[in-house]
C-alpha cells in the first residue's frame, strides 16, 4: 500500500509533486514507520524483507519533519528516537541483505561503519526511549556478527548480548517492560543463545570459570523473559527455552551431559520442540479421531 501511494519516493523540492509540505512530511514519517516495522519483523521471523534498500529514495527524517501544520516544532514527539530508529531500520535492511543467499552488493565493512556512526548518537539515559534504542542497536550488532568466526566478532557479540540483558534488567527495575515492543523477545532470545554459545566455547577452551560466568548471565535472562511473557505470548516459549538452555549449560559445566574437555558442537544447538516447551508433555490425541467427522458441520 505504501508503494502504491508513492510514500517511498522523495517528494522534495526537486520533485514535480504539488503535494503541500505538511503532507509531504506526513508521507515521510509514515514511510519510515512502515520501513521500521517491515525491517525488524523480517529479522524477527528470519524471512526476506519485502522492501529492498534500492527500492526507495525517501530521505531520512530530519528535525523539520516533526513540525506541526502551522510550521512550529512539535515537542510531544521524541524526535531523536524517531531519527535514530530510521537509521537503524535502514541498517536492518542492509543486514538482511548481507545474510541473503545471493548477496551481491552488501559487505560487512560498510554495515559496520554505519553501525559505528550510529553508536556515537546513542542516548545514555534510562528512559523508555533510550533503552529501546540501545536494545535495537545491540540486537543489530549481534545479528551482524554472530555468523562471523573471529575474535573481534566474538567480543562484539558478547558485548551486545550483555547490553541487551542489562538494559532489560534496567527496564524491569523501572517497570518499563510493559512498554516493550514485539521485537524485544527476539533480542533477548539472541542474547540467551549467545550466552549459551559462550558456555560451550569456554568449556572447549578449558576455562570453567568463564563458562560459569556465561551461564550466570544466561540464568539472568529468565527474569526479563518471564516479565515479557506477561505482555507477549511468544515470550512464554522464550522463557521456557531460556530455562532449557540454562539447565543444559549447567549439566555441561558439571560434566553430566558431556565431559568439559570434549563438549560436542551441537550440545547447545540440538534443541527439540520439547526443549522449547520447557519439557511440557504433549497432549494425548485420540487415535480413533475421525477427521472426516470433525469436518462435518451439517
From TrEMBL:
Alphabetized InterPro entries for the sequence: Amide_Lactam_Regulators, XnlR_reg_dom
Keywords: DNA-binding, Nucleus, Transcription, Transcription regulation, Zinc
CDD domains linked: fungal_TF_MHR
Keyword Endoplasmic reticulum: no
Residue span, Xylanolytic transcriptional activator regulatory domain: 1-103
Keyword ATP-binding on entry: no
One BP annotation, GO: DNA-templated transcription
The organism's place on the tree of life at top rank: Eukaryota
Protein name: Xylanolytic transcriptional activator regulatory domain-containing protein
Organism: Pseudocercospora fijiensis (strain CIRAD86)
Lineage: Eukaryota, Fungi, Dikarya, Ascomycota, Pezizomycotina
